[in-house]
Each structure stands twice: as C-alpha cells, then as structure tokens.
Fold:
Amino acid sequence: MDFTNITQRIGASAPIEFGTVFNNSVELFKKVWLQGFITILLTLLAILPFYLVLYAPMVVMGITDPEAFRNNQMPPKFFLFMIVFMPIFMLAIMTISLCLNAAFLRICRKYDLGEMGKDDYFYYFKKEYLKKAFVLALIMIGLSLLGMLACGLGIIYLVVPMYLFPAFLAFDKELSPMEIVKSSFALGNKNWLMIFLLVVVTGIVAELGVVLCFVGVFFTAMFSKIPAYFMYKDTIGLSMDV
Structure:
C-alpha cells in the first residue's frame, strides 16, 4: 500500500475506540503471551553483547587499577569511551527493538486472523527492513532529543507517533522511513488522546507482572504493544502480502 493510499485511509477512518481496542488486545494477548515472552527474551539476548562491550572496559579497569574509581569519579578515558559508544549503543538497541516489535505485530496478525505459518521473529532483520529500522532509530533519537529540549513535554507528545512506528514497519513494506514517520504522525495526531490513554493504561497493565516475583513482567510486558496492531488494523486495514 503506497503512502497516498494510506494517507487517504487515515483521513477517512473512524476515531479509535478505547474499549474496543483494549478488549481486543486482551483477547489476542491470551493467544500470543508466549510469543511475547519469547520476543522479550530475544530482545534481551540481542542487546546483551552491547552491554558487555559497554561495561567490560570498566570491569577491566577496576581490576587492573583499583584506584581509578576512587572518590566515585569516572576516569577520563572511560568517560571518552562512553561519549563515543553510547550513541552507537542506543542506536543498536532501538534498531533491534523496532525489528523484533514489528515481528511480534506480524505474529499477532497471524494468530488474530488464524493464518498458517511459523512464528518468524527475525523476519524484519532482512536487509530491506533492517535499513529502514536503522533510519527509523536515527529519527527516533533525533525526535527524542528535540522533545527533551522542550522541557520534556515534547516527549509526551512524541510517545504516540513513535509508538506506531513498528506497525507501519511491519505492514507497509512499500513505505520509506520518512513516509512511515509521516503516516505515524498522521494517525497519531488524529487520535492522539485515545492512543495516549491506551499506551498508558496497557503499559500499567503490562507492568503488573512485577507482582509475580518480578519474573512475571517478562510474560506481560508485550501486552502494551498489541494495541498498535488493532489501531493499524481498524483504521488502515491489513494487506495479505506481508
């Protein structure tokens, strides 16, 4: 589906209904909670090497030179390393998360529509999608920085369109990264308050797994991602070529 068609569908779509999306998300979560848990585990495993690279120099320095961290001051060399590596670290995490979240939404479609096929968690790690996810991650970092410059209020506004990025990445392979951003803002601006409420409420519900010795959150965390699937499905519709 091209950008013009999507824009027209967003403009002609009915407002998103909180109750409908929330109830549908609950019902679908009953079918995909295990797939959500696997997605969380894969995300943690994928970003683990970057954490090791980030903290390994600190551990080595602490062993070889115990005086380096005296008085709780970061050594200049490590501080410089953090400045250089942190943007790479954040970009990698956001790219991986976008790809895995898009894959999870694709799996949601499979179980919602009763489609056949395997649960392909790495579907969006193909070159064509990975490049898009990388550019989207760059855009998200840029938008987040701009949002923080607005005393943090901009971040609250940007939460809604950025929440929709994985859905457009998952279901609109014809869109460029900038068209994904524009489509997300168009849908987000039209239903901003309702989407924001859904993000907040489902996020709170997703965190309830913490009460189960904190381990349960790994099983419930992806519940907060499911509403994006129904937001897309109910306003734009799903093509069968993804």
Q: What stands out?
A: The radius of gyration is 20 Å. The mean pLDDT is 88. Residues 3-235 form one domain.
